[in-house]
Model the fold of this input.
Amino acid sequence: MGIEILGLPMMYYIAMVAKVLVAFVFVLLTVAYATYAERKIIGHMQVRLGPMRTGWHGLLQPIADGVKLFFKEEIIPSQASTFAFLIAPLIALIPAFITFAVIPFGGVIEVAGYKIPLQIAAYYDTTAGQVFDVNVGVLYILAMSSLGVYGIVLAGWASNSKYSLMGGLRASAQMISYELAAGLSIIAVFMLSGTLSLTKIVELQSGMGGFEWYLFKQPLAAFIFFICSLAEINRTPFDLPEAETELVSGFCTEYSSMKYAMFFMAEYANMVTVCALTVTLFLGGWNGPLTAAMPLLGPVYFIAKVYFLMFVCMWIRATLPRYRYDQLMHLGWKVFIPVALVNIVVTGIIGYFI
Amino acid sequence: METLFFLIISLVAIISAILVVTCKNPINSALALIMTFFCLATYYVMLDAPFMAAVQVMVYAGAIMVLMVFTIMLLNIRVDATKKHSHKLVVGSIIGFFTFLNIVIVLVRSRAALPTGPYSGEMIKKIGHTELVGREIFTSFLLPFEITSILLLVAIVGAVILAKKKI
Done:
């Protein structure tokens, strides 16, 4: 069919580029409007209006913020280690975005006789008649999230400021401890699915009108994973690294202009990724009614579920006060990790007898 | 396509490996080392070993290097390497030259072939790399696996005992 380049049909390349662009633009737009939504939602929860001035009900606020940050003066502290200082925001931002490569956001759609799975790192094998994706998808995500910590550590260290260093140290200690519990809670899901491929995990959750979701089979794992992910991406109630009252702005105190914006984007992009991952692992991914007949409904369900979880994140931020540092470490090491381990053992025992 | 990709990755790997030893700032060296580990992970993917690749990034680039960066940060080694070190340049280059020669001879004289035995590329693609690794670890290599676990446990207990003032 059509022209072939390097042994692969032309459509393969077009589909790949299209998928990458669509997913990237979607995440970017979501990140931009998540900042707006967060201010608006928290505003209304606290009986305020939130941003109202720029555009109708403040709808142009993210654009105004972006333009403002773009034109701010770029300041590099004279005592900072320049290279690490410059590269830190990029290291924070990139893992947040490339994690999206393995998350399936829809089923297989057919364009001009060519079947395209709606997942960036996947292709449809016509001879085998099934979708092949990264068969270590979940490990890939864990690996990328373990790289994200460098951005924050380096930012804290390179700024050469006490507040930044404290923020950076806190952030890294927190991320490392909660990464463990999050990883352990996912293991229970693998034990049920028997595969690391995210496409297959989503397929396994498709039956029984939503009751096959791993949320119902592994409620404890879902709970631990979501909470630990919140801690890993430094969201409230675990936003100690940038605790304003103690540390000014934590690791990004010395940053200005676009670099500050990059940290901000990384935080929200991480939020999108974590919510997308939770949806994929526990809430049935893109599954929903009528997806077999209309494959384009898949992304709609997926986005709806992701947005719901993001709303939950904002809701938590509006509701809960910040943890103290020792409470945070206590919760991570002495509550979540043992509970996740017990969950694995229990899942194993039940799985052996069923 | 794959050759081109291999060459690009190799270029990055070699440049970052050189940077590891030439950077004056220890943090920058650590960053370059992370980059090298990342390139190694890419090689594993190209060799049909995705599990190894993920573990490489998670364990080496993620966990071990975080520890290194932490150590450098907490020791607060600053950039000012004022004293000039010769680093035993002559001895190093002689050793380097012979090692290189050794590798070239081995590569030229050996016949590059796919691994023989039951684990062919076909089988890895069919069953999956992770499944095969898991199956082997928990059947044929169960005893070494358990011994390694106990070794790690001993290390953890040792660390706790050393760190705690009162047990």
Notes: The mean pLDDT of chain A is 81. The interface with chain B takes residues 6, 81, 83-84, 87, 134-136, 139-140, 142-144, 146-147, 149-150, 153-154, 157-158, 165, 168-169, 172, 176, 195-196 of chain A (CB under 8 Å).
